[in-house]
Specification:
The chain has about 350 residues and is of the alpha/beta class. Helices cover about 45% and strands about 10% of the residues. The chain has helices spanning about 1-10, 25, 55-65, 75-85, 95-100, 110-125, 140-155, 180-195, 205-210, 215-225, 240-250, 270-275, 285-305, 315-325, 325-335; strands spanning about 40-45, 45-50, 65-70, 90, 130, 155-160, 200-205, 230-235, 255, 280.
Amino acid sequence: MAEGRGQDRLKAGLPTRAKPVGSPAFREGRMARPLAIPRAARRIGGRKEPVMGNTRIHRILDEVGSIAFPGVYDTLSAKLVERAGFPMAFISGYCVAATAIGEPDFGLLTQTEIVERARRICGSVSIPIIVDADTGYGNPLNVHRTVTELIAAGAAGCFLEDQQWPKKCGHMRGKRVIERDEYVRKIRAAADARADRDFFIVARTDALAVLGMDEAVARVTAAREAGADASFVEAPLNEEQLAEIGRRAPGPSVANMLEGGKTPILPRERLAALGFQLIVYPLAALFAAAKAIEAVYAKIRRDGTTLGAEASLMPFGRLNDAIGVEAKYALAERLGVE
């Protein structure tokens, strides 16, 4: 039985050994400042890694090797991710742009908007949340402030990319990138703002589509040397490019699984074998929610009722459980509030 449960968790991309990262120790914050993992070389995904750090994200990777985790875009989606047992989640800029301002991921979100969304989401759950910080919203000075604000908001890390502003979704056309040296300065600024705090920096490059594989690998390598914790080469077109990134980019490496995007969707086990440790599904929840919402609206418009659609709706009581209704009743009683 135990072995079967372990296989189920492995297929779901969840931890299968050591102390569960969704355990009370994580929920109560006792692991928010994990012990430093020795700065010795270790091998991940077939490559020799020079450093593993001491953030919560590093600790998760040290326990599970590789992890598939979803994107969130509001406090409800974050609560559902935590209830599902995931040890971490990602706030997607595409999702926030779509849900907060109803616009495409074209660099229209401001720093204030993404930080405020991060503050609300991070405050609603106990698992670590990595935030899409786009380009950092300006020059290295702006990047420094962005990271400072995200740390204050409770974020456990960020993605920082090398596109010119205004940026575009990595799986859309019309991308442009800044010079490599300028990007490295931004990464240094992010690392300086982090100092020794619990914050995981992912260096994302969109140079693959614009300048080719060699430059993309050179950029994430330079970014790692400048203080980033992980590499992310965006939008490889096929498994061969994924394999090359897995071999050449300094890990831990991110694989971005965007349904309908440029990169093929592969199982977690295959991506781990190719050398990827952080496997993110940034838009899956938004796609699922949008389709379900569209269907129920069509049902009401067509039939004037939701009768017959109950199986596709979350029950009232289950949603109340997710948002903690009974806990609030208990708090009100304890405080003498009717």
